[in-house]
Each structure stands twice: as structure tokens, then as C-alpha cells.
Amino acid sequence: MAREMMYGEAIGAAMTEEMQRDPNVILYGQNLAMTERDPMLRKFGKKRVRIAPISETAELGVAIGAAMTGLRPIVELWMSEFMLVAFNQLINEAPRLRYMSGGQVKVPLVFKAGYGFAAGWAGQHSNCIYHTMMGIPGLKIALPSTAADAKGLMASAIRDDNPVVYLHHYMLTLDKGPVPESEYVIPFGVADIKREGSDVTIVATGWMVKKSLAAAELLSRQGISAEVIDPRTLEPLDSNTIIKSLKKTGHLVLVDQATRHASAAAIMAAEIAEHGGNALKVPLKMVTALDTSIPFSEPLENFVLPNEEKIVSAVKSVVARQAATV
Amino acid sequence: MAKKKALTKDRLAWMYKQMVRIREFEERVKRTFVEHSGVIRGHTHLGDGAEATIVGSLATREDSDLAMPSYRCHGYPIVLGTSPRKIMAEIYGRKDGLCGGFGGSMHLADPEHHFPGTSGIIGQAIAHATGAALTAQVKDSGQVIYCFFGDGSTKQGAFFESLNLAAVWKLPIVYILENNHYQAYTHISLEDANYIAGDPLSKKAQAFSIPGVTVDGTDPLKVFAAVGKAADRARSGKGPSLIEAKFYRLSAHGNAITVPPVPTQFPEHEAVEVYGKKAEYAAAKKNDPIPRFRAALLGKGVLRLADAKRIEAEAQAEMDDAVLFALASPLPKPEEAVKYVYA
Questions:
Q1: CATH fold label, B3-249+276-338
Q2: For residue B2, is pLDDT > 50?
Q3: Of A1, A13, A237, B263, which shows the fewest CB atoms inside 10 Å?
Q4: What is the 3-state secondary structure (H, E, C) of A215-236?
């Protein structure tokens, strides 16, 4: 049974269900459970739901120590950039401890944060920083783009025995979609084909999936059939599904809200070049943010971020180049 | 107070034995740089001088309590029951090492012996230990976490953030600040505001409104008393304490940082090597906690000379064996390197 649910609501549903299922799951963060009325606090009590001081290094580090000794903490970080304050704990502690101990310890935890807030949050609160976590062995990264994925990936993140960065897109928070009401766990490393098509493969995550689907709709009216793929997790990355689609379409556009060289798209491009490059009929195209910080004022912000029009024009340019060479 | 925590004659002899075992182990690590040049790679940090603080603290623990120190971490697992063979083999990068050669000197871990793991980055493990205390509180396990770190660590944000959070949440943890007077190569007078003002470092506890005590870290009985009180407080739900144990690190910060093919080697203590303070170092050597504790125990008749000599001979034999074991242990198979990335 599925129920219409908002993306943000679906995340909460998964957290609640997992906390009911496993008493070792705890939740804490800043500005959280501040009063006795807090629903999570009422359900799970003060031991398992806590307000944390504004101390990211301690919040992340404490979760690591708690995870090493038997809990499964979820840390609510609110904004992904706040993790930068505790970058050592994120990059050089959480994913290293199991390996350095020769497999003796595990660090099952979830660092949860929103990202990509394109609503006038300017230079320090609307970035996409997931590329900094990619290629860090030991760390996993999930980026849901729909309400159902938000629930299934959160359940998977909490059950995973490794540190997981769970990044939910702020611009999708109120978007509704059908969400399975019963237990729903989406395995990591399995891309989802959000729209089938035959002329071009578009790969996107988070909010960019929504933009890409809108672009695909515009393209279909012009006779171009676009397949839209959401990898859903960046680590592990399901390159196979992308390459399989590419072998069908021969054209590839990678869409990413991050700046070009700090994008997941750049890493995907390298993977595809090595493992599926022969399937490209023409060179791939990347649609990313411009190489600027995110500006405050709306027209400036719109100018630097990817949108439907930029995606449509990138798709047309690769398809047109194909037509020109035939 | 639990029975085992009573300082019987046997318990005092046990404490002396653990101190001697740590010292003997660290001496053998240091000698490896000379006797088996090139066997130890990377950076190795010794805890000689810290024995009274390590043993005095851990002598207060109950069986399930955890110890979580910094990367200067050889001494604690020796007391907790880890085989010195496995520790030495790890330091030598061997297959039979405690972590299979994946961690080395700075990253010992032995969860089975109440030693969950260590971080090589100064101060960061204070947060991990605080998290272990959160587990103890959430699970109501009755455990106390013994968190050890150096004076350098107290200049890190992780220290301030963790102590504040532990005080707010009343976590069962004892923070043992090993003031060995040098942060890596830098003397404490160059970087600690409390020290410069003539205050003890335990004054930092006042920032979190928790007990802060300074003790002579070269006297295991004084450490035992202070840490025992803090552990009792933590166990009874009253939250964390900060114990500053003052002693002097007797070896240099670590082996000299050399680039291959220059073999690693151990330099003189920075007091001599960097600051030219020969008298300071000589005084510290004179104040070595081990001969002092030995003399005190002999003087009180707790230990007979024959017992002391037997303990020392046994420790030497044990650590000789650890070296031979580690040297004989094979190197790990290269392809093992891809194991343990993910659980």
C-alpha cells in the first residue's frame, strides 16, 4: 500500500520506523527536540532523541564513538555545509576506523543534511559538496530525488553497517509522491530509471532529476526521446545501469547542480569514458552550475544553476551533432 | 568500592608489574630502530614516562570499562590484556599484528579487550570516547569511559566541544589530560594560556562547570585516588571530570621523520634536541616514575627485592618474546589491502 507523502515527511517516516524497529538507533542534532512536545521525543524518549550543542566536531565525532560501541546514531546536521566544520571527522575518522583496525570495528551511522537550497541562501548555505565525499573509501553517499526514494534510502542508510551521508534536497522537501507504507528499503548502488527513452541518456541526482524529467517532457514534444537515470547513491555508484542505457541511446548528458569540477558528473564522466566510452556516438555533455559561488539575488542565482532550458539545449546539441555526422 | 579496586599488596605489585611491562615494551620498540633498522615504518610514539598515569588510572576500572587514548597508545592495551606479541607485530607491520598490519603504531584497536580504537589526529578521539560514553548511557551498561589525551589535544576544538557536550548530557566519562609538557615538539609554555598564566591545565574544567583536578602523574597512587573518585562520580550519573596528570614524556615525540631510503630512527628528546635544556631533561629522568614507585614499595615492605627483580625479569622475557614473535611473523599478503573498506 502506498500513500501520497511529502519528500520531507517520507524521511521522517523512515526514521520513525527504523527507530521503532531497532532500539540502538538514536537521533540528535542542533535545534531538535527542544520541547517536550516534540513528536520524536515523545515516541522515543530523552535517551534516544537529543538536542545537541552547536558543535559539529563533537556531533560527528560522538556519533562515531557511539557507533563503534554499538549504537546506530542519526545526526541531524540540517545543512550539508555544516559538515565542513567537522570535515576531519567526516573524511578522516568515520570511514578510516574500520580499515585501520583491520576490520575489528564498524561505524554504522547516518549524517543527515539538506543541500542545494536554491532559494536565496547565497554563497555558504546552498552548495552541493558531495563530490568532496566521493572516492573516500569507507563512506557511502545517498541522494534521494523522490519521496519514495527518500524513505527507502533512509531505511537503508540506517541499517547499513558503514558511515552514510544522507543528503536530501531542500527544494524537494514539499514535493509529494506515492510512498510504500510498509517496510521499504532501497538497496544502495542501484540506479533507478526515472523515465525510459531511446535517443539520449540523461543522468541526474536530487533536484536535477526533477529538472531533467521536465526537460525530457519538453524534448518529447520535439520528437526526442530522453531516458532519465538517477543513480540514487554516489557511493556505491551504479555505472552499469548508466552504461547499459548509453549503449541503447548512444548519447549522454550529465546534469549536476554542483560546479563543474566539483561535480559528481565529472567523476561519472571518467567512469563512463573508461568503461563505456565506445558507446558514445558523440562526446558527452555536462550541464552543471557555473564556476561561481551561489549568488543571493534571484536572477543571478537562476543564471548560474542548471535548469530545463540548459538541459534541453545540451541534449539537442549532442543529438544534433550526431545528426550532422550521419 | 569494588573489591578489586582495593590496593592490596597483590594489587600494588600488579600495578608495579604493569608499569614495568609498559616501559619494557616501549624500550624494545625504541631499540628496534637500532637493532632492526628499517623494520618500523611511519611514525611511532612512545609512552615512557606516562606509566604511572596509565596504570594508576586503569587500576580503578571495572571489567567492562573502556579505555580510549590518543595515538600514543601502546601502554593501555598492554594493561588491558592485549598480547604484546600482537602489538609489536602490528608496529612491525606484520600479518599477525593486532590490526593485521592495517593500522600500525598509531591506530591500535582491540575491542575484545575494551580498547575500541584510536585516532592519529590530535584531539579527535576525545569526541569518539565521548560517543562511547553516550553508548554506555543509552544502553545503561554501567560502564565508564577512560579518555586519555595529551596537553596538545586541549587546544583542539574537539576537546572543548566534547567536554561541553559530556557535561550537558552528564555522560559517564573521565577525561585524563596527560600533561607531558610537550605538544609534539612545542613546549607547553608556547601554546597554553593556563600554563602561561601560571594556572594548572585542569582549570579548563571550569569552562564546563565540571570538576577539574591536577595530580602528580608520576605517582600511580595519587592518580589512582583522583581518577577513582572521578570514575565513581561518572558511574553514579553525575557526569564527567577532568583530571590533569602532570608528568614528563621521557622520549622524543616520535621517531624522526625520514624519507626513504633513510631509515627511521629515534632522536633525543626535544628538550635537548630543540631547546637545549639538558638540565630540564636530566631532572625529568631523575623523577622517573618507575624507580620511584619501586623504591616506595620496597620501602613499605609491599614488595621484596626478589619480587621486584622477578617482575622485571619476567617483563624483559615477555617483551623479548614479543620482538621475536613480531620479527618472525610474515608480512601481510598485498592483495589483502582491499579488505575491510566496508563492513
A1: Rossmann fold (3.40.50)
A2: no
A3: A1
A4: HHHHHHHCCCCEEEEECCEEEC
